[in-house]
Prior knowledge:
The structure is a homodimer of 232-residue chains. By secondary structure, chain A is α+β, with helices and mostly antiparallel strands.
Amino acid sequence: MNILKHISVDCAIFGFEGGELKLLLIKRDDEYIHNEWALPGGNIREDEGVNEAAQRILAEMSGVGDVYMDQVYVFGDPGRVKDRIVTVAFYALVNPAIYKLKPNIPGALEARWFELDKIPDVALDHKEIIETSLRKLKRRFKFEPVGYELLPEKFTLRDLQNLYEKIYGIELDNRNFRKKILGARLLIETDGQQKNVSHRPAKLYKFDRERYNAYKRKGINMDILPAWYNDF
Amino acid sequence: MNILKHISVDCAIFGFEGGELKLLLIKRDDEYIHNEWALPGGNIREDEGVNEAAQRILAEMSGVGDVYMDQVYVFGDPGRVKDRIVTVAFYALVNPAIYKLKPNIPGALEARWFELDKIPDVALDHKEIIETSLRKLKRRFKFEPVGYELLPEKFTLRDLQNLYEKIYGIELDNRNFRKKILGARLLIETDGQQKNVSHRPAKLYKFDRERYNAYKRKGINMDILPAWYNDF
DNA sequence: TCAAAAGTGTTTGCAATACACCCATGC
DNA sequence: GCATGGGTGTATTGCAAACACTTTTGA
């Protein structure tokens, strides 16, 4: 199957593991990138959509599909790559515990999760793509509760709070945080508990996807519009 | 100069005129569209960036460049057009009074501003592109004061309120609206007044672009994050 | 019994909302 | 003088923010 010349997709894949927000990078060695860390990416086939191409590429590396992905931006200046290539950037949210890296990815020497403040130099304009993706991720989290994409099925409120704190690099008041999260009624209390912790074990929660879907379009209170206006 | 095969740009151009929010459509007759209303669009040249291509195409129709434009989304499913073409959609905000339509645009039989609730059937998947663009426009206005792109240099507070009301299709309380707008200190009172109105003439204001640029990254109050967090 | 994190309520202040009347002008 | 939209102020209320102690468990 032919590919579309002059277009590619690149994916900023975020994961949350060990209390840290991480980004997946690949050490690539191909026509454009020589033994450098870079975002996973690739070409679009003639018979697949742009979004599907991104899903496929992610699946080829992690072995799993149906992942939360979102378009970030199109980078298309001439000169961004040796040949003239316009790339559509995506970001994806995955739980690294589930989405294990595949070994022996063709064209990739190595794959690794990097903590956000330890990202090495990357190829081409991928630094800019990463920064733009992170900005978009922050915005997303500001306006929509997507945290569960990054967490295991069951998690504690502290896990969720840590996630927010890592994404924004700030500390949150845990009373207010719990009030808001529980007040949104997006979590379902399970009968599980933390195990093997040397302190009071936390309750485990899971996301209420149904209620989440209802919330999806809610939007947030703004200066100009009345808060009840949610038609987005 | 060669063009990039398999990629195009399409522009949803919004204007505000006569108290109505309008969209510019072109009656196109070319390889893909036969005598149908459609968004202005075209190919990307090898030596120009994607964003520049969008600016150029807009300039070719209106004769004016340096317009507020923003990427909306990439539409790239196979089958959206006869051949395999991925299109990058943009929206632009222009003041129709300034950006006059050019006659005799190559490949375009006619160009016209349509009120949003009177948009005719459009070619290909342009209906979807228009809807997505409008959604993005609404979001933009919710979080950033870009109204002045659509208004003349000097305007009344009522003009601005009308603009918001048209975009969202709701009515706003004028006392609260004025309080917020003036409170944001984004407007500079000029010494001009409305003329020839058979009622108390309104003061004319202009935007304070400098202060606006400072506000640009402010972001809005959110549920999870403290309101003072603005690092976007 | 100590360490460590989980869990919990109240007060305060600000900002969004709702609401109604006088003002300036043209005709 | 009247019709028309411009322009203004206040009271209420709900929510975000700040804040500290008790509870539960493992070691």
